[in-house]
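Our preliminary data section would be incomplete without showing what the modeling component actually yields. Below, a chain of 171 amino acids is followed by its predicted structure, encoded as tokens that our downstream tools consume directly.
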Amino acid sequence: MRVGGSYYLTLQNENKQFSYSYTQFSKGFFASSNTGIATIDRVTGKIAPVKAGVVKFSARTSTAADKILGFWEVIRPQRVTGLSVTAKVKSVSMKWNPIAGANGYEIWRATTQTGDYTKVGSVSASTTSFTQSSLATGSNYYYKVRAYVVKSGSATRYPGYCSTPVFVKVL
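Predicted structure:
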């Protein structure tokens, strides 16, 4: 799921013999474990992602209040926007807009816009800038930055790169 998107929770019974949508779930209700990450309409099951993170959605029937049907889902961070790259003497510096809920950012570089990109660095979520030094004068590079979210301490989820690679010629 992406922040700003709209989704519906569809339930399936434990035997996976049939599924039913929110319109057939009129005697129960849905819930979100963290409404700061994603809300869910109690009646319709409509999910509204708020920011990146991990959230558990559950559904309870009115006749079996202790029985919870649900799943864990990672809400992926938005694409990085506002990337600007500045050429300096034998280095480049860049900055971008912060992404709510991201655990960090990776910086990727290629010598052509559609070429193979190589990871050249990473920074924590609180840092929205990066400088790469010791570059050859006159070199042409394209940079991309992507945000990531860590799930369960090790599995990393990415939304994709920034929308457009940014070109720079090193001074």
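Confidence is low (pLDDT under 50) at residues 11-26. The longest strand covers residues 140-151. Preliminary results of this kind motivate Aim 1 of the renewal.
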